Amino acid sequence: MTETTTNAAPAQPAAADQPVPFLDLQAQTDEVAPEVRERWDEILRTSAFVLGPAVDRFERELAEHTGARHAVGVGNGTDALEIALQAAGIGPGDEVIVPANTFFATAEAVLRCGATLVPVDVDDDYLIDPQDVAAHLTPRTRAVVAVHLYGQMAPVARLREVVGPDVLLVEDAAQSQGASRDGLRSGGAGDVAATSFYPGKNLGAFGDGGAVLTSRDDVALRARRLRNHGGVGRYEHLEVGTNSRLDALQAAALSVKLTRLDGWNALRSAAAGRYAALLAEAFADVPEVVVPREVPGAVHVWHLYVVRVPGRAAVSEALSAAGIGHGIHYPAPVHLLPATAHLGLGPGTAPRAEAHAGEILSLPMFPGITAAQQERVVGALHAAVRTARAGAPGGRDRAVVG
Ligand SMILES: *Cc1c(COP(=O)(O)O)cnc(C)c1O
């Protein structure tokens, strides 16, 4: 940094020097804030803070958007998963199959229900692999959790063929609001689904929130009870539930944001297209850099844009130094975490997911990311990968670079 003394306005740093955040929610927030404030004023006037009209309204709107008959608003996505599983009757003695690469909450919910966690491998699109699901079916298999990871739906139709009519298909739709595949919509494709409104999700609240989605009346009713101390009415306790209700202020904000979701997803999709073009050009001769694809028949909503890179630790360090936000989703598969060590599932349980975990890298992605920001990301990634390959033992560019 050079200091100059001049009367002129300070020069803007060149665009190429500006950091790129991993996620920037400010434009979204600014866009909806006036409408949200109006709805919040109404709630402040009526003191309808817990459940009430704002939650009812959002539940109806969300159900319509997903094609599920019922939406039940709950406190967060993790509770949504646990309540969805419990409402569908999952408990001790039941085996529940989950993909090995997912956010820990997917596995946590299964374990909190007292069920047996059965992690299986993922396919080349990072989604639960139906063939490996088939290999893990037993007479005790009660459910399969299809995690629609990174914004792309798992192969739900294929999973149904593989598991038959009697195993429950549970969707973890936390990352896939607005996605579809083979004509099935995220949240409306299985027996029951859970979604999250954590602020960074495609449909994010201004705090925590979640929902259970289902077209089964019995499951919806039970989810309504479980979120409210085991009963729908006050002091009605038909079973042991919990307190996990969607906050009315969050529901009101989500109603406003839901009207923008499809447009925001379209912006993400356009950004993904730009990344694809930029990365294809930058890494035309580097096959180790793997870019994500939208599978045929799917509408991907690009919650995350995940590439695979050689020498990820060095690449990540170089990106940080260049001011490029990035993430790793996720650093370890669910069976190789301290919290699941007691299950005794070692390396080799899900070889593809385990290999991916060492190479995946999530690039900045949010509605409104600019082409200039994306060029900067890909430029920095190109430099980082070159440096990493040069530094790696046997790196191909070793003799050329440095
Ligand atoms: C975010 C997320 C969850 C949990 O949602 P919270 O609202 O943070 O509890 C569960 N599963 C997946 C795949 C997620 O991305």
Automatic annotation (TrEMBL):
The keyword Ribosomal protein does not apply. The active site is at 201 (proton acceptor). The keyword Ion transport does not apply. GO terms for biological process: polysaccharide biosynthetic process. CDD domains: AHBA_syn (cd00616). InterPro entries: DegT/StrS_aminotransferase, PyrdxlP-dep_Trfase, PyrdxlP-dep_Trfase_major, PyrdxlP-dep_Trfase_small. It holds the Pfam family DegT_DnrJ_EryC1. Keywords: Pyridoxal phosphate. The modification N6-(pyridoxal phosphate)lysine is found at residue 201. Belongs to the DegT/DnrJ/EryC1 family. This is dTDP-4-amino-4,6-dideoxygalactose transaminase.
